[in-house]
Amino acid sequence: MMFAIGLIVGLLAGAVAGFFGARAYMKKYFQDNPPVNEEMLQSMMMSMGQKPSQKKLNQMMAQMKQQQKKANKK
Q: Residue ranges under compositional bias (Low complexity) (predicted)?
């Protein structure tokens, strides 16, 4: 009987610890590697000497989303 209670308590403690550990890891990951947004694309293009239009920014964002979907399928 004590074995079953210990097993259940251990599983619950592991699940809680795993959840908070994964949450902390993802927070740190997104701080170190923020997702690219339109403002970042615009500043990158301007640093390369291009004056991007809103249409061009939208096209580039759509291309990036398509590539992410392709990478996630593999």
A: 55-66
